[in-house]
Design brief:
It contains 19 helices and 17 strands. The protein is of the alpha/beta class. It has 3 domains: 76 residues, no CATH class; 125 residues, Aspartate Aminotransferase, domain 1 (Alpha-Beta Complex), CATH 3.90.1150.180; 250 residues, Type I PLP-dependent aspartate aminotransferase-like (Major domain) (Aspartate Aminotransferase, domain 2), CATH 3.40.640. The strands form 4 sheets. A 7-stranded mixed sheet has the order 5-13-12-11-10-6-9, with helices on both faces. Strands 1-16-17-15-14-2 form a 6-stranded mixed sheet, sandwiched between helices. A two-stranded antiparallel sheet has the order 3-4. Strand 11, helix 12 and strand 12 form a beta-alpha-beta unit. The longest helix is centred in the N-terminal third of the chain and has 21 residues. The protein is globular, with a radius of gyration of 28 Å. The mean pLDDT is 91. Bound molecules: pyridoxal-5'-phosphate. The site of pyridoxal-5'-phosphate has 15 residues, from helix 8 and strand 11.
């Protein structure tokens, strides 16, 4: 394009004020605000100008092109990107999908506390300052047998604060087999470095003996640290040191024995493999002075980190400057307290994560048959004929870096469409107005029923119908 031509084309781009006053633009300014709409359109027009200057051939009339691009961008910005989805993956604690969905009681508590003033840090008797930790400390102590407990933003923060208090400027001894990385951002060596502790890794990847710890102790050692190998298992010849031996060694040398439990099983859960797991109470009884764990993994509450154990050490943590940066918000505390109270009165099966893990096969089969029936009815109403929909057995998982090698046998509904790949169907479901996140296996989309919440069936049917209509609009089914 010659310069004169380019200039002509550039001049034909519609003026901003003209665009902003069209009914097309005003439909967006109601929820985005006129300034935002203007900024987004400016970006789109700048983009088009740049393409023209680069000499990219532009086929459509420029005003149409501008409106097309802007509509798509504005449409995206109209909807919030953080929104509920249906978890049909069968992975109960799915970190990307927000880990634990809250129990009804916890949701009610958040609702009550978030829209009002509260006693977050206020004592009604004294008419003055109270402690935000007090709301949950006594319950945690009661359930776990700990002398004291402190909650922070998440378990990574719990480990950071606990080590900062017990080991800053001193040595922490940890087994080579336990240098865990969780979700590519939590790494034991790095957390130790952040808390200004010096790491002494002992033993081998698959075997660490009590003598390895004993031989590594110097006068500068402060902590023996045990870390739960949450998201991996070492198979074959494996030897790790029992916590009782570590506790005894630590006590005899005036060191702190601390354990990062990760998932934090508060109580017994009726799933076969959870018997291998020690609860927080067991660990403290076996001699751990400090135990840290997450609130939103097996515990089934909101994102929170708990430090439980020795009153003397936890008192120091309560007065550490770092706590101010790691403290828990009121909505989280409300949800956490309500979740803990369900454990207190033995109603923990009402916690969705616990209920999902405990679900037995007959209950899951019933759920799968029901979903299958609903989906078949949905395709019948849109006259779709080339679908195969059937109940299948599935391999579900606890997830969240818990029990990485254990499979929870479950049921689901497999869907295949003759003319479309499973990936296309899955993308359709994920991008439906109510997003459904399915599994994929053997060329089918698989909806695992273990992780569905009540009411999800009908929502899946609505999204599925929408996807089928969308697919058929592009490729009408062969008439049969
Ligand atoms: C999950 C986990 C963490 C991190 O916990 P967050 O609550 O996600 O911060 C730390 N350590 C272990 C062993 C874990 O399993």
């Amino acid at each position: 394009m010659t310069n004169a031509n380019t200039n002509n084309v550039l001049r034909s781009i519609p003026a901003m004020d003209e665009l902003l006053n069209t009914p097309w633009a005003t439909q967006f300014s109601g929820s985005l605000g006129r300034e935002t709409v203007k900024n987004i359109i400016t970006d789109v027009l700048d983009g088009i100008r740049n393409e023209i200057r680069k000499g990219t051939p532009i086929k459509a009339p420029l005003n149409e092109l501008a409106v097309l691009h802007a509509t798509s961008l504005l449409g995206k910005r109209m909807l919030s990107t953080l929104k509920p989805v249906i978890n049909a993956t069968g992975v109960v604690i799915h970190t990307n999908l927000g880990r634990a969905p809250l129990a009804a009681e916890a949701i009610r508590a958040v609702h009550a506390i978030s829209g009002a003033y509260s006693t977050l840090e206020y004592s009604l008797e004294e008419g003055g300052r109270g402690g935000r930790n007090d709301h949950v400390e006594w319950i945690l102590c009661h359930i776990t047998g700990a002398e004291a407990a402190l909650v922070v933003n998440n378990n990574a923060a719990a480990v950071l604060l606990a080590l900062s208090v017990t080991a800053a400027g001193r040595e922490v001894i940890v087994s080579c087999g336990e240098l865990v990385e969780i979700g590519d951002s939590f790494r034991i060596p790095e957390i130790l470095a952040f808390s200004r502790a010096k790491m002494t890794a002992v033993g081998c990847t698959n075997a660490t003996r009590i003598s390895d710890y004993r031989n590594a102790i110097t006068e500068n050692t402060a902590v023996l640290l045990k870390v739960h190998p949450s998201n991996y298992r070492i198979a074959g010849f494996v030897k790790s040191t029992p916590r009782e031996e570590l506790a005894e060694l630590a006590a005899s040398r005036a060191l702190v024995f601390m354990e990062d439990l990760g998932s934090g099983l508060l109580c017994h859960v009726e799933a076969p493999f959870t018997n291998q797991e020690q609860s927080v109470r067991d660990c403290l009884k076996a001699g751990s002075r400090i135990v840290t764990f997450s609130g939103d993994k097996l515990l089934g509450g909101p994102q929170i980190g708990v430090i439980a154990g020795s009153k003397q050490l936890i008192d120091k943590m309560k007065h550490h400057q770092l706590l101010r940066a790691l403290r828990v918000d009121k909505m989280t505390l409300a949800a956490f307290e309500a979740t803990l109270r369900l454990y207190l009165c033995g109603r923990q099966t009402e916690i969705p994560v616990i209920g999902m893990i405990e679900s037995d096969k007959s209950a899951l089969l019933k759920k799968a048959r029901n979903l299958c029936r609903i989906l078949k009815r949905a395709v019948a109403t849109v006259k779709a004929t080339d679908f195969t929909i059937a109940v299948v057995e599935t391999c579900d998982a606890v997830g969240g870096g818990s029990y990485p090698t254990d499979i929870l046998p479950g049921f689901g509904v497999a869907i295949s469409l003759r003319s479309t790949s499973a990936e296309t169907l899955a993308t359709g479901l994920r991008t439906a107005p109510i997003p459904v996140i399915p599994g994929i296996g053997d060329g089918n989309v698989i909806l695992h029923v273990r992780t569905l919440l009540s009411g999800d069936d009908q929502l899946i049917a609505a999204s599925f119908t929408e996807v089928v209509n969308r697919l058929y609009a592009m490729h009408p089914p062969e008439s049969s």
